[in-house]
Amino acid sequence: MARGRRVCLPGLTHHVVQRGNNRCTLFWSTPDYELFLSLLQHESARYAVAIQAYALMTNHFHLMATPTDETGLSAMMQGIGRTYVPVFNFKHQRTGGLWEGRYRSFIIEREDYWLTCMRYVELNPVRAGMVSTSEQYRWSSARAHVCGHEDPLLATHDLYLRLGTTPDQRQRAWHAICQAGTPDGELAEMREAIRRGRWGQTP
Length: 203
Prior knowledge:
The protein is of the alpha+beta class. About 45% of the residues lie in helices and about 15% in strands. The chain has helices at about 30-45, 70-90, 110-120, 125, 140-145, 160, 165-180, 185-195, and strands at about 15-20, 50-55, 60-65, 105. It has a four-stranded antiparallel sheet, sandwiched between helices. The longest helix is centred in the middle third of the chain and has 20 residues, at about 70-90. The two termini are about 30 Å apart.
């Protein structure tokens, strides 16, 4: 079956999900996470893709990324894979593909869904039982958004800035939003959006 054409709209944020092949582990150790984040920072700058949020889980990862042109997002993802996969395979004595096919993505077309999506991304480690609060997880953007931890990878989105007039106000507001958790209905809607590649579109 032919693969569907991937839609990429410059200037809009895309929720990107990439999983390990057969749910294999993508990050075994701290150097794996660090290499991936370094590559993400380099390739996102190279192709002018703003990274607003991320969460690196054991066998998959989530990104919220806003490209400036139609090819930047795919070029960034390909650039990461060209280096990360062979290095990972060599280091961990494995062969073959690491990713579960192409990455999945959908466009966040409505502002009222944007923060909902970021909360979903940053609460992944909490839902997985890895930590009790999002900011405790080292390999996500939550520490920056909740605690003000410096993260050179991130580009701050205007919708996050609207949460308060000072960094402290924004961090406290975002902490409260995350503490509220994600309703079951939103979880189901988000997972369906990842599956079909569309969510929050204008009726």
